[in-house]
Design a protein that fits this description.
Elements: E1 6-12, E2 32-33, E3 37-38, H1 39-50, E4 54-59, H2 63-73, E5 80-82, H3 87-91, H4 110-116, H5 118-121, E6 128-133, E7 136-138, H6 143-151, E8 156-162, E9 172-176, E10 182-187, E11 196-205, H7 206-217, H8 228-239, E12 243-247, E13 252-254, H9 258-267, E14 290-292, E15 297-299, E16 310-312, E17 315-316, E18 321-322, E19 327-329, E20 332-333, E21 338-339, E22 344-346, E23 349-350, E24 355-356, E25 359-361
């Protein structure tokens, strides 16, 4: 299904502080994933797959690197990337090496990102606005969701998924009636009463979203939290707007912390594979990664596991090097990392370009600021 009158808003402005040292030199959307691509590529690929013609980039941090990536791998290849206030500059000619971009206005939350880019999001041509996040991992066609949204004449349709009740407090909890009308959305509830959570992608009628954002902005800084799931959607529910839920099946992950980054990638090794290699975006290499049953691992096509090396239940990214005598178990080896002979890694991550020797277990070396596991 193609969606010519849908415009996507890609939220890519978070600092990524809970990703520890993985975001020391990268913006979070560019952190590598699944031995195949970067986090941001999943949402962009989903939009392109669904026939969404344009994505408006809403970013703040290390934006130049993100723009370079999107220009190289996505812009004009099934989808146009609108770089908002920078779009005219970028399309006037190639950016020079080291060229910086004018800073965007500061934001207190995701709703601010929408307000600051209203002229691009609500330009003529879009009947609906699709909200996406640049750190969510899933492979999805938005066509059925858009069809259900329009058939029901919904003001907004939100993706929802059932998860284990013990994890609901990490997400936005959703209560629905028998007709999938949303009765309540509570962000990170202390005592969950439902196992249904908001997947944080949703489809708004463009005119309704613009109207609601304008009315909330009129409250002033003290009247709201500037957030889609804390303010915009609860406000619409209280007003009696048609807020509907669309159940999402299959693999979906919100990569919020370094612990979750590690754990969710190891889940990709489970059978049946939640995200088969052929479904993954490919921006780190032209060839899809492959499952290596002899190692129970997912590896870039160019990665060699030499005789004498032991690799079990791990992800080896394109461009990494494993030396004979290395032992790797339940670990993620990022692009350009080298694991030397005699190194022993367990339940850990080797950062991009790192030279790893000795023994390493766990993720303590990547945490910053004493952030607890999520």
């Amino acid at each position: 299904m193609t969606l010519p009158d849908v415009r996507a808003a890609l939220l890519a402005g978070g600092l990524g502080e809970r990703m520890g040292h993985l975001t020391d030199t990268l913006c979070k959307p560019l952190v590598p994933y699944a031995a195949s691509c970067r986090l941001v590529d999943f949402s962009v690929a989903n939009a392109a797959r669904s026939g969404v013609p344009e994505i408006v980039l809403l970013s703040l941090h290390r934006e130049r690197d993100l723009i370079d990536h999107l220009l190289t791998h996505w812009d004009g290849r099934g989808v146009r990337i609108n770089f908002g206030p920078h779009d005219r500059l970028i399309r006037s000619g190639p950016l020079t090496a080291g060229e910086t971009l004018p800073p965007r206005p500061p934001e207190s939350g995701t709703a601010d990102a929408l307000l600051n880019n209203a002229e691009y999001l609500f330009a003529p041509g879009a009947r609906d606005v699709l909200i996406q996040h640049a750190d969510h991992v899933y492979v999805h066609d938005y066509g059925p969701m858009a069809a259900a949204h329009r058939a029901a004449d919904a003001d907004v349709t939100i993706g929802v998924q059932r998860i284990e009740r013990r994890f609901v407090h990490l997400f936005g909890m959703v209560d629905v009636d028998d007709d999938l009308r949303v009765r309540r959305l509570v962000e990170k509830p202390a005592e969950p009463t439902s196992d249904l959570v908001f997947t944080a992608f949703c489809l708004f009628k463009a005119d309704v979203l613009e109207e609601v954002l304008t009315s909330l902005a009129a409250l002033g800084d003290d009247g709201w939290q500037h957030d889609i799931s804390r303010d915009v959607l609860p406000h619409m529910i209280r007003e009696g707007r048609r807020v509907l839920a669309h159940p999402i099946t299959g693999y979906w992950a919100d990569i919020g912390t370094v612990e979750r980054y590690h754990l969710e990638q190891l889940k990709l090794l489970d059978r049946p594979f939640p995200l088969p290699p052929e479904t993954l975006p490919r921006t780190l290499a032209a060839t899809a990664p492959r499952h290596r049953p002899e190692h129970e691992s997912l590896t870039g096509a160019d990665v060699t596991v030499p005789p004498g090396a032991s690799v079990r239940s791990s992800l080896l990214f394109p461009g990494c090097v494993i030396e004979p005598g290395a032992e790797i178990d339940r670990s993620v080896i990022l692009p350009g990392a080298t694991v030397r002979a005699g190194a022993r890694l367990g339940d850990t991550i080797a950062a991009a370009g790192e030279d790893v020797t000795g023994t390493r277990t766990g993720l303590a070396h990547l945490r910053t600021g004493g952030v607890p596991p999520r």
